[in-house]
Amino acid sequence: MGGDIKMIKSTSQKFLLSTLAVLVSSHLWAADAPQQEEAKKDALGLERITVTGVARGTRVMDSSVSVSSVSLAELEVSSPRSSAEAFRIIPGMKVESTGGEGNANIAVRGLPVASGGAKFLQIQEDGLPILQFGDIAFGNADIFLRLDSTVQTIESIRGGSASTAASNAPGGIINVISKTGTSDSGSVATTLGLDYDTFRTDFEYGTSINDSLRFHVGGFVRTGEGPRDAGYNANKGGQIKANLTKEFDKGYVRLYFKHLDDKSIGYLPMPMYSDGSSIPGFDAKSDAIQSAYFQSTLSLGADGERRRGDMRDGMNPVVNSVGLEASFDLGNDWQVENRFRFSDVSGNFIAPFPAEVANGSDIATSIAGTGAKLIYANGPNAGSQMDGLAMRINTFDVQMNDFGSIVNDFKLTKTFDDTSVTLGYYNATQNIGMSWMWNSYLMEVKGDNAALLDVVAADGTAYSDNGLYGYGVPYWGNCCQRNYDTDYSIKAPYLALASSFGDLSLDASVRYDSGDASGNYAGSVQSQVDMNLDGVISIPEQSVSSIDNANPQPVNYDWSYTSYSLGANYQFSSDLAAFGRLSHGGRANADRLLFGKVRADGSVAKEDAVDIVDQYELGVKYRYDDLSVFATAFYSETEEQNFEATSQRFFDRKYKAKGIEIESAYFIGDFDFRGNLTWTDAEIAKDALTPEVVGNTPRRQADFIYSLMGRYNFDQGSVGVNLIGTTDSYAQDNNDLSFDGYNQVNAFATYNLTEAMSVSLNVNNLFNATGITEAEEGSIPDNNIIRARTINGRTTSATLKYEF
């Protein structure tokens, strides 16, 4: 690092060393003694049958897979404000969930997040992927996922066993499993924000209709401004899910349904000082760039039509899906299983991105020449001159026209004594159709409803219209008016074998993925357009970005790769087992190859189409009285091809990572503790585009990440505390600017008013800590202001819940 660069001093490592032995955590076990004793005996669920990432259900103690399970009760203690925040307590997962209800970046065991999303990880609902690619630009899989009271549990596997269990998931799988009406029960819960604006009601009910038919239905509705000051009702919508199960003598058939239509604010990097402290007038932990004075934007649509983007839409997924699951014993030790889902998916993503933060006069001069000034375009100071910090705002205004998919996963298993053989065939199609319609505005740096700014030249000529200075993004070379309509198909036959030889279990699996991409895409073209139809061509209207539909480019390529995984598990005793695994997996690249990696004829180089991941793992599972430990050492080598919209950069790299992942649970009387810690040593091993970063630590990769939780259970309720933490990490791959690690403390308490009614208090970020997860800058600029995302400040909510 440069000696003249101010580095943030970390206290996290000291804290971590002092708490490693504690591994504090929590789990809301039922208060009655028999269930609590059962929980103590198997705190990490080593006796449970896992169904995620395996060809057939396997007891965890017998498997050579790093697998974890999280219940809704455990999630309550971690006080999540989004689906991705719920994943923070899963071992090995580094979750950057500072984007709001979606748009999180999720890394697993040092596999990189070179751009965004969860590239090497697959997020599933009930055993099938939400999207076939976890890092679609402005379409991360977690945007289309909402956790509510219909969730039974969240299962996850990390490591190479996922390579053959799913397509495009060499790093791991997170599977959100729904309740299916196995118990005659239901609940209604209302949550109210005490120090922030939110109001939400969750409901669910399941029961048997007769001896062979049962159902479960539930969902949520909510409204509110959200955890940051947006200036308007930024979160509004809901979800309903239902399933119907018919039991037969030899199996079952289950029908699923889901409807999601939810608008949630999207937080992009915000201005703050390089040490994470707030700029006067803009609180980095509670303010947002969104404003009541900036709610719509006018642009040309995919076909040249005038259209308005509504900033209040934020991330607005609209999902209608129907699924069918069936499993039957065919006799003679044959078992068949099939999962199918059809999903109709569309929506919007719109949020303001600060392309530049600088002195207002400097920005005005760069646009309109010497002597130019900024004038308030709206707000209480409209018409007066603005002196101070200003931002160029690029509106990430994206229509998700079609993200629909059809997925089918078929398995046929034959058991021979202690050996099982599974043949499977996976077939999926994924549409990726979207339109980018970005504009450029000027805005003051201010929280709590910032105003838009107009730029006026020294001679009085206006260079902007009501804060808009560009129909497009001239600061980025008018790169980003885009439209693409592409289809991706995947076919994957697979074979899995598992055998037991006394205390030794062996498994091997192979999967062959092949796919093809077709469609077209088009970039931007500039022309003169009277956008506001006033009969006058203003300066911004002299060069308006639109889609270059006259020159569409084809997409026409295919790919294939073979994945394999070999594992062995040896059970030394009923309480001790060890396992090892080696795996080779792949990940096909999709829309991020467009506009740079796709050739003129639509083809793609083989090395760009697929990224390969090789992994090696050694693990141990151990129980002693009320203590359980699950530890895994890992090593991986990863290829990476990617594109990042915010920096307009392509990546062509190889990474190496090694580390240790530990999950543990311990009971002491009425206290229960649970925690996980992951140490990772990662480096950029090769870079074809920027070789100067070779040997550096990948950006945002911390040495340690951890989740520590503890709970005290008493007759009338429980109290719990959760710590989410990370040590220092670098902002960018040049390893210059560093972010301090942080500890986020969350708290949860519940009190049973009656046998059926309870009240809970939930505090996220109890001590109002600052925790920067990402930044656009790699070094500290001259004005010491960076554009970064930090965890939200303290938010407190109360929930009244009735169970029946």
What's the short version?
Helices cover 6% and strands 54% of the residues.
Jot down its keywords.
about 800 residues; mainly beta; 25-stranded antiparallel beta sheet; 5-stranded mixed beta sheet; 7 helices; 46 strands; about 55% strand; globular; disordered N terminus
Shape summary: globular
Radius of gyration: 26 Å
Sequence stretches where pLDDT stays below 50 over 5 or more residues: 1-35
Give a quick account of the main beta sheet: strands, pairing sense, barrel closure. Answer: 25 strands, antiparallel
| Strand portion | over 45%
Helix/strand structural class? mainly beta
Work out the helix count: 7
Arithmetic mean pLDDT: 91
Task: For the record, give the distance between the C-alpha atoms at the N and C termini, rounded to a whole number.
Answer: 60 Å
Write the layout of secondary structure elements.
Blueprint: H1 12-19, H2 33-41, E1 49-50, E2 58-59, E3 66-71, H3 72-78, H4 83-86, E4 93-96, E5 105-108, E6 121-125, E7 128-129, E8 151-158, H5 162-165, E9 172-178, E10 185-193, E11 197-208, E12 213-226, E13 235-248, E14 251-263, E15 270-273, E16 296-300, E17 306-310, E18 315-331, E19 334-359, H6 360-368, E20 373-376, E21 385-386, E22 389-402, E23 405-416, E24 419-437, E25 440-444, E26 453-456, E27 468-470, E28 481-501, E29 504-522, E30 524-527, E31 544-547, E32 553-573, E33 576-588, H7 606-609, E34 610-624, E35 627-644, E36 649-668, E37 671-687, E38 704-714, E39 717-726, E40 729-730, E41 738-739, E42 742-752, E43 757-764, E44 772-775, E45 785-790, E46 795-803
Parallel strand pairs: 6-9
Antiparallel strand pairs: 1-2, 3-8, 4-5, 6-7, 8-9, 10-11, 10-46, 11-12, 12-13, 13-14, 14-18, 15-45, 16-17, 18-19, 19-22, 19-23, 20-21, 20-26, 22-24, 22-25, 23-24, 24-28, 25-27, 28-29, 29-32, 30-31, 32-33, 33-34, 34-35, 35-36, 36-37, 37-38, 38-39, 39-42, 40-41, 42-43, 43-46, 44-45
